[in-house]
Amino acid sequence: xxxxxxxxxxxxxxxxxxxxxxxxxxxxxxxTSSKFNILLAFVPIALAVSFANxxxxxxxxxxxxxxxxxxxxxxxxxxELALRCGxxxxxxxxxxxxxxxxLILGVIALKEGLIRVVQASVLGxxxxxxxxxxxxxxxxxGVSRSEQSxxxxxxxxxxxxxxxxxxxxxxxxxxxxxxxxxxxxxxxxILRLSHGTAIILLIVYVLFLIFQLKTHAHLYEDxxxxxxxxxxxxxxxxxxxxxxxLTNYD
Length: 250
Prior knowledge:
Elements: H1 14-17, H2 23-31, H3 42-51, H4 56-85, H5 87-97, H6 100-111, H7 115-144, H8 152-178, H9 184-215, H10 234-249
Helix pairs in contact: 3-4, 4-5, 4-10, 6-7, 6-10, 8-9
């Protein structure tokens, strides 16, 4: 007599009853993902006011309110993509395309010769990420946890990249300060130094991607107890992410 083996979790379990989300269910989940989504009403208002040539104060205030729910939706779309592509890819996507608006504005400002605008944008981004964001992580992480752990190798790699980036910004700046009254030849040398530094930083970034995604991907994997199921489709998550990025740019 053969013995029938019953699985510990049958096909009638909750895990197998989970249906693939549809477009409309994805839209509903995204629309109700946060209470801040009610502020999305300010997005068309802010666009209309900007085209109506209103005062800069009014345009700034309305756009500031409108960007709050967009940032929340951007985080939600990133989390949904991370559930399908992995936490490392999700974090990389957020870090790379999350600064796409600043990158585009920086290129346009450089083309128009607005050097101070680019400098203020880069400085504000650096201070925001290494001070404000890091400080909030320490504060909120310690509210519910008495002790937090992190991977030492990954932290050392990030610290080394931060030091390299800081040095790459300081060296051209130091030469620029000492050569303010120098001739055109010295200024051209500083420009070549800046171009070389930018190329080196791009190469280092590509090498870091290889380190993070290929050779040492295990250092950046989350130790999750349970596998979360995405609540939106992949196409809807990508579409939402792209639309939010374009709206932020506008």
